[in-house]
Amino acid sequence: MKNTFYLKTDARDQMIDITSMIEEWIQSIGVDDGILVVSSLHTTAGITVNENADPDVKTDMLMRLDEVYPWAHPKDRHAEGNTAAHLKTSTVGHSQTLIISNGRLVLGTWQGVYFCEFDGPRNRKFVVAVHA
């Protein structure tokens, strides 16, 4: 089973908590146990699992990624000018594999699943697939 989700981002760099979207879909299809893969369909947007209690974690992560991969580097050759976004996505990764148990994602107390925008604002999509 799989589903495509659509998002509209509103900033160049942004982390959007998609945990509840995924869990609502899991419950709607009635899966109790299985493996779930969530994947961004973009080369400048990724998926990660990280803390969802303190919003400063997202702020700090985006700030530090920007320090490592500044937006305009004089040696960048990519014609679109978004090399930093491609590097950030490769660092974060485009997908995550998660466990479903008792109809819920198996996540730690403070963990959430995030769609990471690195070249927005844009219309985006990600796919979730379950093997039960």
UniProtKB/TrEMBL annotation:
Pfam families from the UniProt entry: YjbQ
Entries under InterPro entries matching the protein: UPF0047_YjbQ-like, YjbQ-like_sf
Gene3D superfamilies the UniProt entry points to: YjbQ-like
Matches recorded under SUPFAM superfamilies: YjbQ-like
PANTHER family reported for this sequence: UNCHARACTERIZED PROTEIN YJBQ-RELATED, UPF0047 PROTEIN C4A8.02C
Protein family per UniProt: Belongs to the UPF0047 family.
Listed NCBIfam families: TIGR00149_YjbQ (TIGR00149)
Protein name: Secondary thiamine-phosphate synthase enzyme
Species of the source: Halalkalibacter nanhaiisediminis
